Structure formats: C-alpha cells, structure tokens
Fold:
Amino acid sequence: MTASSKPLILIVEDDKALATLTAEHLELAGMKTQVFFRASNLKRFIETNFANLMLLDVNLPDGSGFTLLEELRKSGVDIPVIFFTGNDSEIQKVRGLESGADDYITKPFSFAELVARINAVLRRAETAHDNKVTPTSKLSEEPFQFCGATINTQRLEITFPDGVTAALGRKEFGIMAYLYANQGTILTRKNLIHAVWGIHADVKSRSLDQYIVKIRDAFARRGITLNSFRTIHGVGYIYDPDQKDAPEEHS
Structure:
C-alpha cells in the first residue's frame, strides 16, 4: 500500500496514553492517524479536511461523544464512526448506534480486533456509495420532472417534452436532483456545492454557476424557458414549479 492510499483515521480520545498507543498500532497496520483530545479541536479540523473514519470516545473533556456525532451528522458530515469507550452497557451501545455510529467497541480491546473492525467499516463505507452520483443523489432513485423534462436517474438521461433524449452529466444531474428535492426553497450556492460536490470539496461558486449555465443552455436549445428555475441575486437559486410566471433572472 502506498502512502497516498493509506486511510486517515481520526482518534478523538482524551486519554493521551491510549490515544498515542492506538495511533501507533493503526500506523503499523498501514493507516494514517490524527489525534484529538477535545471535541472542539476535532470540529475545527473536520470543517475543512477529509478523513476516512473516526474513532470516538463517549466521554470527552468538553462534551459528549454522542452529542458531537449528532452535531456532525446534522451538519452533513457522513464520516464513518466507531465509538470506543469503557462503558459496555447495552443502553449506551444502542444510543451510540442510533446517533449515527457504524460500530461500538468497548475497552479494554485488542488492537487486532480494532484494526479488523476499522477495515470492516471502511469496506462497508466504500460499497455504500457505489450507486451514488453525488453525495445527495443515487442512481436507484425514481425519475422526476424538472421544468417539463423527465430526468431518468438510472440512466443519467434527460428527456425533453418534444421526446428528444440526451445524456446528462453527473454534476448537472446532482444540481437538478437537489433542486427538485428542495423545490420552493431558496438554496444558497454553498448548499448546492455541498450537496453536489461534497461538504469538504474545494469548489468555487463560479464552477457551480458554469454548470447552471449548461443546464439553462440545454433547455434553451429545445425552446424551453426556465421561469420556475430562478437565480436569487446574491444568494443562490430556487426551483419553484408553482411560480412559472415569475420573471426569470440569469446568473
């Protein structure tokens, strides 16, 4: 395994000796590690960085691991998480899994078992995203209507009202799918970027706007106006089929 292919494992544990020992064993097993002793430090890191998996203690100096995970999930961070803690009560395990964790291991544990559990969760995480076109849209979803056209989510195709069918790019599909799922709601450019490229993607608004232009042009070539898909100046976009007669703005 090359250095660039090593998975990055975040260790969130206030016991510095255990955190250091865990990091050493994981690195011997071919992984990269980053250790955090406080929830606040982890949150600052995860806002702008990608990691493959997190080992999370339940009890941290500045909060609960359960609360931390719930906050991360609500903000769209879907990193796989394994709780590791000294509390082996069934209630705690259930709460950990219900809060969005992928596994729960109690201390003391063998490092061989921990490595095996990490690898199992990483494999599941890879296959779970096999049918994802973007972070928020999948190939298995039902077709939907967008500005009079039919979007075939299984074939990545768009069929216009005149019967013409064309291939659809992944990003254009992701944008339309997210707009459709949130129709009637103003979405900021950041909302759309996170939904289509991922929460950690380094994508500028200009790139998003270029894909919006491609969508508009595809409809314009068929003589279709997009009054229900509007730019909200200085904010983002809205898809509102109930407002077809509203004046159209352009990005």
